Every structure is written in structure tokens, then in C-alpha cells.
């Protein structure tokens, strides 16, 4: 198996790069944001529970997010070549649970690709995306909350993976294909012998 985390603040390009990584490495995409949006759209009990968090740019509580993620992992682990995690983990607790799950299944997170993008660049990109996708959580106030959640809670995931030697920082500003080239080189180096 090859398991990758794509990491970065809102608007860093995780979705765009994930699509390209999945195509190249044949991985199963897990975006917790997409999963939550789908539950909300279908008005499931989980959707009802998480709606106010996602709409306000706040992190969904760990126990809810982790339970949903584990179910998807259990349902798919036997059939796939590996996973790419997009928007997960967002807290150190989530990262620890993910490592434990991988170890229990005889595998690991092989690389954490962190896209480096400044706050100003992020705001400009999200404004642009808002016009195209019309996402309910992307207005300015909520955007600031999402960015705050990233810098208050999610950023601590970086030293966690750094201390385990799995963090790869990639400059997230530039041409999509140039960034993708840097990512694939990093993944290929990290996955040698895995
Ligand atoms: P995203 O599309 O990845 O930015 O996620 C949209 C929203 O879903 C976030 O603003 C959070 O409210 C929620 N969410 C997604 N992933 C997580 C996670 N790993 N932990 C907690 N909340 C999450």
C-alpha cells in the first residue's frame, strides 16, 4: 500500500493536486470535507449533526470525524492500492488515530505532502473559487474562521509528522504541473522500498 496525506490550509490546492496524485498512483481519495458535504446534502443524521460546524468554518469534533473516517477505511482497505487523505488529519489526535489504524493494518502513512502558501495568496484563491463553486462556507467571515482553525489547531499536525520524519514541504505557489512534479518526486523518494 501507498498512503499519502495531502496537507495545507484552506485554498492551498489540495483538491487539485489530489486529483492528479490519484490518477498517477491509483489511490483511493478520502476527503473528509467532501464526505461531510455529501452527508449534509443528503440530510443524513450525521449531516444534521455537523452542519453548523462546517457552515461556520469550525472543525467538526474529533470523535465524529474519526468515526466517519474509520468506517470509510474499513469498507475500502481490502480493495485499494492505497489512500490519499485530503483534509484529514486536522488535529494531532486525528493524526495519532490514523497512525494507529495504519499500524494495526500492517501499513503506514508514507508521506505527508504539505503545500506551503501564504495567507494573502490563500484569500485571493478562495475568493476566486467562491465565484465558481458557490460553497456556503467560503464567505469572508467564515473564511477567516477556517484560516484561524488551521493556524490554531491544524498547524500542530506539522511538527507531529516532522518528528516522525514523514513531512515533505512543497512550495504551493506556481504552476499546477510544476507543483505536481515536486510532489511526485517527493512521493517517489518517500515510498522507495515501501
Ligand atoms: P474542507 O473542504 O476540507 O475544507 O472541509 C470543509 C469543512 O468540513 C471544514 O471547514 C470543517 O468544518 C469540516 N472538516 C473537514 N475535514 C475535517 C477534519 N478532518 N476535522 C474536522 N472537521 C473537518
Detailed description of the structure:
With 194 residues, this protein is of the alpha/beta class. It has a single domain, classed as Rossmann fold (3-Layer(aba) Sandwich), CATH 3.40.50.300. The protein is built from 9 helices and 5 strands, in the order E-H-E-H-H-H-E-H-E-H-H-H-E-H. Helix 1 (14-25) packs across helix 9 (176-191), helix 2 packs across helix 3 (45-55) and helix 4 runs parallel beside helix 5 (92-104). The longest helix is centred in the last third of the chain and has 16 residues, at 176-191. It is globular and about 45 Å long. It binds adenosine monophosphate. Adenosine monophosphate is lined by residues 10, 32-33, 36, 53-54, 57-60, 65, 87-88, 90, 94, 137, 146. Adenosine monophosphate (AMP) is lined by residues 10, 32-33, 36, 53-54, 57-60, 65, 87-88, 90, 94, 137, 146.
- Radius of gyration, in Å, reads 16 Å
What composes the largest sheet? 5 strands, parallel
How many E-type strands? Answer: 5
Helix and strand pattern? EHEHHHEHEHHHEH
Structure annotation, total helices: 9
Distinct bound molecules: adenosine monophosphate
Helix content: 55-70%
**For this structure, what is the CATH class?**
Alpha Beta
What's the architecture, going by CATH?
3-Layer(aba) Sandwich
What is CATH's topology name? Answer: Rossmann fold
Rounded to the nearest angstrom, the distance between the terminal CA atoms is: 8 Å
> Which ranges are low-confidence, i.e. pLDDT below 50, for 5 or more consecutive residues?
none
CATH-assigned homologous superfamily? P-loop containing nucleotide triphosphate hydrolases
Secondary structure class reads alpha/beta
Spatial shape: globular
Supply the number of structural domains. Answer: 1
